[in-house]
Amino acid sequence: MDCIFCKIIRGETPSKKAYEDDLMLIFEDVSPKAKLHYLAVPKHHYALIDQMNAQDQADIGYILRKIAKLKNILGLNDGYRLTINQGENAGQSVHHLHIHIMGGQTLDWPDYRK
Ligand code: AMP
Q1: How far apart are CA 9 and CA 58, in angstroms?
Q2: Are the C-beta atoms of 36 and 75 separated by less than 8 Å?
Q3: Mean pLDDT of 36-53
Q4: Which of 55, 85, 100, 101 is least surrounded by CB atoms within 10 angstroms?
């Protein structure tokens, strides 16, 4: 599969891994938008929430709980933001579902209408 996150999952492209198990991977975003910026990805490839099967739905719940359990190890004990970009208007650039995890600082709340 010619997908950059699949290549990271297979170990063909290097990444700074923070956590890995059979279902998921957490690694540092190569172009961080916050002091701490990780990506949590399911190992099963799909691009959009629309495309999730029943197992994918269960796995996302597992991934969210895992992020919360790892927050101290990730340096996120003072809070963090999770973002899932979906499609063109959101600027999704990698078409393998991923959860942005940002923290390590106070995060403002942009008014996107400006
Ligand atoms: P999105 O715009 O929501 O699709 O987010 C894709 C994210 O993947 C961006 O924040 C990129 O900086 C990040 N990214 C792309 N390639 C890599 C890579 N090889 N290693 C780590 N992060 C990456």
Answers
A1: 20
A2: yes
A3: 98
A4: 55
Which residue, 46, 10, 3, 47, is CA-closest to 25? 10
Tokens of 20: 């890995």
**Is the pTM for the entire model greater than 0.90?**
yes
Eight-class DSSP state of 82? E
Residue 49 corresponds to which tokens in the numbers above? Answer: 């929430």
24 in Cβ contact with 41 (< 8 Å) = yes
Distance of CA 58 from the midpoint of ligand 1 (Å):
24
Number of continuous H segments (helices) and E segments (strands) in the chain: 3, 5
pLDDT digits (tens, 9 = 90+) for 46-78: 999 999 999 999 999 999 999 999 999 999 999
Residue 34 Cβ inside 6 Å of ligand 1? The answer reads no
- CA angle (23, 42, 40) in 5-degree steps: 110
Structural domains in the chain, sorted by start? 4-103 (3.30.428.10)
Catalytic site residue 98?
Answer: yes
